[in-house]
Design brief:
Layout: H1 21-43, H2 53-58, H3 65-82, H4 93-103, H5 106-119, E1 124-131, E2 134-141, E3 156-162, H6 169-172, H7 176-183, H8 189-199
Bound molecules: manganese (III) ion.
Length: 200
């Protein structure tokens, strides 16, 4: 029943030049693997061992910090790999209409997400979430996410951007805003659109 590392689904260099292959390899094979291993270690022999990741997130306040940090890390990265792609795509008509209604247009969404990511002090994530049927932008610290019962803004995340330094430092060094600007070139809108349809 132990959690396992999901395959990346594309080559490490698929997101070049926006996200470099070495960053992707270390991020997936080392960082994400460590979250999986440490989550399994933290849950071993406890009742949490038989819970799904979503069940753990929904009741995370009842679990030790190791489950919150590593369970969040496993959930967040599992989503992150799927919402990235080297192939160009665009939001579905349905998602595009929701983005226009909430943020004016796609650039309005990008600006709001990039501000959320750039102003998150230290490590964390920027999120596009469906909350009560509406799109909301927020950010969380560390490996927290909007599925957690402790989250300030709760909902179903459909797009998450990792703003930990390990996500961008090799290529962008301290320039987090440049990484945030570039990542929109490799967003997999087919997956984000499907996430939206499922979440609303
Ligand atoms: Mn990360």
């Amino acid at each position: 029943m132990a959690f396992t590392l999901p395959p990346l689904g594309y080559a490490f260099d698929a997101l070049e030049p926006h996200i470099d292959a070495t960053t992707m390899q270390i991020h997936h094979d080392k960082h994400h693997q460590a979250y999986v291993d440490n989550l399994n270690k933290a849950l071993a022999g406890t009742e949490g061992e038989n819970k799904t990741l979503e069940e753990l997130m929904a009741n995370i306040s009842k679990y030790p910090a190791a489950v919150r940090n590593n369970g969040g890390g496993h959930y967040n990265h599992s989503l992150f790999w799927t919402i990235l792609s080297g192939h160009s795509s665009k939001p579905s008509a349905e998602l595009a209409a929701a983005i226009d209604a909430a943020f004016g247009n796609l650039d309005g969404l990008k600006e709001k997400m990039n501000t959320a990511g750039a102003t998150r002090f230290g490590s964390g994530w920027a999120w596009l979430t469906v909350t009560d049927g509406k799109l909301t932008v927020s950010s969380t610290a560390n490996q927290d996410n909007p599925l957690m019962d402790i989250a300030e803004v709760k909902g179903t995340p459909i797009l998450g951007i990792d703003v930990w330094e390990h996500a961008y430092y090799l290529h962008y060094q301290n320039r987090r805003p440049d990484y945030l600007k570039a990542i929109w070139n490799v967003i997999n809108w087919d997956v984000v659109s499907a996430n939206y349809a499922a979440a609303k």
